[in-house]
Amino acid sequence: MSIVYDFKENIKKDDLDGISNIINSGGLVVFPTETVYGIGADATNSNAVKKIFIAKGRPQDNPLIVHISNLEMLDKYTCGINSIEKKLIDNFWPGPLTIIVKSKNNLSTYVTAGLDTVGVRMPDNDIALNIIEASKRPIAAPSANISGKPSGTNLSDIFEELNNKVDVFVDGGNTNIGIESTVVKVENGVVNILRPGKISLEDIKNIGLNVKLDKHIFKDVKDGEKVESPGMKHRHYAPSTKAILVDFDSDKIMLDKIKEYKEKNDKNIGIICYKEHEEYLKSIGFKTIVMGGKNDLLEISRNIFSLIRSIDKYKFDECLIEGVKKQYIGTAIMNRLIRACGYNIL
Ligand code: TXA
Ligand code: MG
């Protein structure tokens, strides 16, 4: 059994020493961040980093994010930042923003999957920051989940799939944001969003920078097509049950289309829906799972991965998922939902 440390109420100094010893001796630690849980290892130790790929069943071509707790670490492991990257860091760190920059080649090559760049972020979570500080080294950490499954946002969702594959789990309760960090790369003066997250296109525009969404945010990658981020190629977040995204701007059209679909398909169909739609959808025969209030995108983002993970246990023939507006963190929620639905859209 892996060890579990409970840091929900406070960070225990003795346990923190134990955790940093494990990191420094090449072990794996599952820890919370403000976005999702990560599986962390010393980013400078290839043997340790290799274990992350094995524990997750992660394709070796998919590089890991390096977590730092101070800007000296950024200097030590990267070739420096330009004025646009500095502005992003000044505004959004510590926080849910990963910046892809040139690496100095003093990290394990498994972290960067052989690329000359590295994704770096400073998480906004005291447990994560304390673990990095106590270990005195950068921590490589992908999301804590078996590859292909939704990222873990609480320990009970991921305990079984990662138990015995890591040395320690650190319990920090439910994560605050619930979906992974925004990943950006600055190219030709423009901030390109490779993976949307809580720090949105609108947030980056608001600090006066030129910003765009990568063309693959809502599109599948064709075989052989070149992508800016290896993670875009891999299958993500999907339950075993067939899931279908319901994507309409108007609520009225959305509910009419859902009703029509139910009438045409005589099956056991579940739906992940807004709180406001629950009663109506129940009345027309759906088993409903509530994602949150329609206008509370942060509540939806906090809940969504755990709900997607729960779909299979209901044994539906199919599960519909109501979409949200593609603005602010809604863009990130839709990016995850489209993938969870394997690009099936109603
Ligand atoms: O919120 C998060 O970012 C969480 C927590 C634990 O910090 N971490 C996370 O890591 O989501 P992971 O490994 O599941 O996702 C990292 C993403 C992948 O899509 C990967 O392809 C991309 O970042 N990435 C990492 N390094 C890159 C690089 N050098 N160039 C392009 N994309 C990169
Ligand atoms: Mg992941």
Structural account:
α1 crosses α6 (126-135) and α11 (297-310) packs parallel to α12. This protein is globular. The chain has helices spanning 13-24, 46-56, 71-77, 83-92, 109-112, 126-135, 155-162, 201-206, 251-264, 278-283, 297-310, 329-340; strands spanning 3-6, 29-31, 38-42, 65-67, 97-102, 117-121, 139-140, 168-171, 182-187, 190-195, 211-213, 242-246, 269-274, 287-292, 318-322. The chain is of the alpha/beta class and 346 residues long. It has 2 domains: 3-213, DHBP synthase; 242-340, Threonylcarbamoyl-AMP synthase, C-terminal domain (Rossmann fold), CATH 3.40.50.11030. The protein contains 12 helices and 15 strands. The model has no long low-confidence stretch (mean pLDDT 96). The strands form 2 sheets. An 11-stranded mixed β-sheet has the order 1-8-2-3-7-4-6-5-9-10-11, with helices on both faces. Helices cover 33% and strands 20% of the residues. The structure holds threonylcarbamoyladenylate and magnesium ion (MG). Residues 142-143, 151 line the site of magnesium ion (MG). Threonylcarbamoyladenylate is lined by residues 33, 35-36, 38, 62-65, 96, 98, 100, 112, 115, 117-119, 123, 141-143, 180-181, 183, 194-195, 229-231.
